[in-house]
Amino acid sequence: MEFKGTKAKKVILEELEEQGHPERVEDVIFWALEYYCEHNKGTHGSAIAYYIKERILEEEALGKEADDE
To answer: 3, 23, 52, 62: most buried by Cβ count inside 10 Å?
Structure first.
């Protein structure tokens, strides 16, 4: 099956799948999103980074609630 998407998306997905680093790739991406939205306020990129970061936090909270039940 042929990959459809940008080269960046392909690399990110591969890195997430392989997890060949001393830190979890998704953690590093989250930290980068946090940093970006804090240091680039007032930009579209900052708004997008903030939105993605908040979605991750919401999903983690929902997952924790499900684990607590």
So the answer is: 52
- Distance of alpha carbon 23 from alpha carbon 28, whole angstroms: 7
Render pLDDT for 41-51 as a digit per residue (tens, 0 to 9).
999 999 999 99
DSSP-based helix, strand, coil % in the chain, nearest 5: 75, 0, 25
Q: Which two three-digit tokens encode residue 28?
A: 């590093």
- Report how far residue 32's alpha carbon sits from residue 27's, in angstroms, rounded to the nearest whole number: 9
For the record, the structure tokens of 21 come out as: 């680093």
Report CA-CA distances (Å) from 4 to 8, 52, 57: 11, 21, 28
For the chain, domain boundaries: 23-67
**pTM of this prediction?**
0.82
